[in-house]
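pasting DNA replication protein DnaD for the record, 300 residues
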Amino acid sequence: MTGWIKLHRQIMEHWIWEDSKRFKWWMEILLLTNHTDKKVFVGGKIQMIKRGSFHTSEVKLSERWNVSRNTVRKFLKLLQNDNMITTKKTGNGTTIEVHNYDVYQGNNEVKKHENEQQNKQETEHQHEHVRDNEQNTTKNVKKEKNYKNVKNEKKEKNHSAFEFFQNNGFGFITQYTAEDINYYLDSFENDSDEIVIAALKLAKDRNKVSWGYTKGILNTWLQTNLNSIDQVKFFELQLKEMRKNRNTSNQFQKKELTPEWLENRQYKKPNILKSNIIENDENFNKEVAAFKDKLNKKWD
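structre below
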């Protein structure tokens, strides 16, 4: 896509100028908007998208900006509330109309776009100019924000589930994985980003750095109807306490006493029968001796 848009200095007084990330998203919306009427193929049909509009979807924008669909939805709602855009959802995506598009793309620019091959050098220069403006804007925002705003910006950045996934060894985010992550971000009513990050942290702490293991944790929380990060923390603390009590109980179980004869395999029972036989033999011999003595006396 070639061409350029124009910006007035008044943009520096707008609230979006103070947020470098959302200002970049707004610039991309302006650059994606059609500068002339354009036919597009949507849902098996050819549709005419008017000048000042373009057709996209929350999924495409979430992948483009590397954020969740919920974040995209909130940003578009913010622009609508400020009367900057109008969105029209269909079964095949969302059509976004930029209000006051002529402010950014006047009639003179339309003619230049029709002759873009002749003005290629000029348009490329303007692209560089826009990129320079974005870089300068980022620097100015950092200088103008106070410590609290900078801290909040860093905190918000660290709370991106997509960034945590990529920065902690879970691998490359494919389109399938991105849709998977967005599913869980949309499934939890509150604190969805923090909840997904909490599951990723648990998996990493248990040396199970895989998205499959993380999904198992998230599915357990969903099945338990946990709807906030506080509920998740309380649930995990309960599980930890239960495991601790179970281990303590096992350690203090009494050991069953084992009979001495079973412990000492060499132990032998006393031979009672043999001792009785020996004793009986001695008595018998005494009786025989007495009988012989009696006979001898009789014959004498």
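Residues 150-158 have pLDDT under 50 and may be disordered.
The two ends are 150 Å apart (CA to CA).
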